[in-house]
Write a structure and sequence with these properties.
The chain is of the alpha/beta class. It has a single domain, classed as 3-Layer(aba) Sandwich (Rossmann fold), CATH 3.40.50. About 25% of the residues lie in helices and about 30% in strands. The strands form two sheets. A six-stranded mixed sheet has the order 4-3-2-5-6-7, sandwiched between helices. Strands 1-9-8 form a three-stranded antiparallel sheet. Strand 2, helix 2 and strand 3 form a beta-alpha-beta unit. The chain is globular and about 50 Å long. Bound molecules: guanosine-5'-monophosphate (5GP) and magnesium ion (MG).
Length: about 180
């Protein structure tokens, strides 16, 4: 496992992101929606830096990756989503890879009538996008490697790491916690 972003670098990135968002929304109430499970660490750190009237909620997406690191069909569970009609909403996810997850979420959430809907991600993988949309806010662009830590998992392991690390082929072959 090779560290890609240190705790300090991540803290700096979140700080910059929070400053941009605080400026963008000024004193308008914002509803932050975290995409479970990968965004939980990011959401926890980001919301405590936002100097805005804030609501926080979650939505769940599963992509049936399982052992594989390539995406499968998406299942969206919005049963925990708060009412977003007429609200300014910021969707927060861990990583923008092919982009299918964020594109589908944005499409589905638009139907619920928010007054605005923007998106922020911690990481954006370079050269992987297959959709026409881009996240409105990106803390870090990274190369096309499989990363874990700071909320991101490999078979539900490594989410608690305070840094972001790339797994190499041997790590992936051995499986998590091997
Ligand atoms: P997309 O739909 O943009 O291809 O993929 C987004 C989702 O795939 C992320 O929310 C994340 O759950 C997963 N994903 C994509 N790339 C990585 C990665 O490098 N590491 C981990 N742990 N998950 C990833
Ligand atoms: Mg995941």
């Amino acid at each position: 496992m090779k560290q890609l972003l240190s705790e300090d670098e991540i803290r700096g990135g979140i700080h910059r992101l929070a400053a941009q968002l605080t400026e963008r929304y000024r004193d308008r109430p914002l509803t932050v929606i975290g995409v479970l499970t990968g965004s939980m660490v990011l959401v926890a750190d980001l919301i405590r830096q936002l100097d805005l009237p804030l609501r926080v909620g979650v939505i769940q997406v599963r992509s049936y990756r399982g052992a594989a690191t390539t995406p499968g069909p998406l299942e969206i569970n919005d049963s925990m989503l708060p009412d977003i009609r007429g609200r300014d909403v910021l969707l927060v996810d861990d990583i923008f890879d092919t982009g299918h997850t964020l594109a589908r979420l944005i499409e589905q959430m638009h139907e619920l009538g928010p007054s605005s809907l923007r998106s922020a991600v911690l990481l954006r993988k370079l050269g992987r996008q297959q959709v026409s949309i881009e996240p409105d806010y990106v803390a870090f662009n990274i190369p096309d490697v499989f990363v874990v830590g700071y909320g991101l998992d490999y078979q539900d392991a490594y989410r608690h790491l305070p840094y972001v690390a790339a797994l190499d082929d041997d790590d992936l072959a051995a499986g998590p916690l091997a």
